[in-house]
Amino acid sequence: MVKAYKQEHVYKHPWERVSAASWRKFADPENKRILSHILEVDTLNRKLDTETGKLHTTRALTIHAPGPWFLHRIVGQDICHCVESTVVDGKSRSMQLCVVRRHKQQGGDWISSIELLTTKNISLKKFIEVEERIRYDPHPENPTAWTVCSQETSIRIKPLSALASMAEKVEQKCAEKFMQNSVKGREVMERICKYMEAESAPI
Amino acid sequence: MGLLKKKEPTSARSSTSPCADLRNAYHNCFNKWYSDKFVKGQWDKEECVAEWKKYRECLSEHLDGKLLTRILEVDGELNPTTKQADLKESS
């Protein structure tokens, strides 16, 4: 089962500022209160291509996502780790982010009994996977002053018939949560952009 | 909790990561470089190298092996060659 949700938003700020704000989004302590589900952000890897102006970065995000009881029961934990890969193309002015978040089964008793019922050794390890793709590009109508953000979230649930109806509910909850969080994320982005605009304004 | 070994999730709100200071130093340097140079087309030179090195050393020292493996599993599927190699190399 895969469900995808698309969203688009126009920032009335230039791409340079919006992409810079995206880097600051999770790190700023002020925003940490709003984006309280983000616990830690660590940069694991970075690579700058000095010829082409491409910047590749990998970050690890630790997220607190308590969710509904049945999700907790399945997943067995409410902390999840995500990997965020970002490619910024300085030449063409584009920023692409991909966040993969995977909930893994933690060997709860409920899962174990389901596992026993299945004849083959079906791995439940990759149970729920959420993939988020975000792009920041200059707005086609106003490329020097505006930025368009397109965001796509796909939620993939392992199709086990015994869990299908449960999975459906989980999926729905996940989607709701993501929608809420992406609104919050957008507010934070707007605020950082405004702050950076003021900061860069000539005195 | 982060990637680091910690016992109580309550401690996670304000980061108690032993690398927090080094991480902030690096991220501040990076953000400044990104806004002041990179987006203006000055990408001919890698910067914040010293900050990055110190931060990475701290991370590889304190990363919880199990969590790191989990993260690399996800990462490996995104980009099987480059990223894992890079992490191994510096740990």
TrEMBL record, chain A:
InterPro entries: PRELI/MSF1_dom, Slowmo/Ups. One of its GO terms (cellular component) is mitochondrial intermembrane space. Pfam families: PRELI (PF04707). Residues 2-201 form the PRELI/MSF1 domain. Signal peptide: none annotated. PANTHER family: MSF1/PX19 RELATED. This is PRELI/MSF1 domain-containing protein. It comes from Thlaspi arvense.
TrEMBL record, chain B:
It holds the Pfam family UPF0203. Keywords: Disulfide bond. GO terms for molecular function: phosphatidic acid transfer activity. GO terms for biological process: phospholipid translocation. Coiled coil: none annotated. This is Uncharacterized protein. InterPro entries: MDM35_apoptosis. One of its GO terms (cellular component) is mitochondrial intermembrane space.
